[in-house]
What does this fold into?
Amino acid sequence: MSSASLIIVRARQVQDSAASVPSPCLSVCRMEKGSALCAGCFRTLDEIAAWGSLSDPARRAVWRHIEQRARAAGKQRSAES
It folds into this structure.
C-alpha cells in the first residue's frame, strides 16, 4: 500500500473516531521539494512543528488537509503512470 493510500485510510479513521487524535507521522520524514510536504504524512513543516501544541479539533483539521493532499498526490501519481 502506498503512503498516500495508507494516510487516506488513517485520515478516515481519525475523522470517524471520538478518541484522542494520533500523530500522522509514518517515520518517513523527508520533505518533497516540489510540494514542501512530508513524503510520509503529507504535513507542512509548520504543521509538524505545531502538532504538539494543537488541540484535538485543530489536529482533526490538519488530518482533513492531509487527506485532501494525499488524494491529490494519488491522482497525480496515477496520471503519471
User: Anything to note?
Assistant: The mean pLDDT is 91.
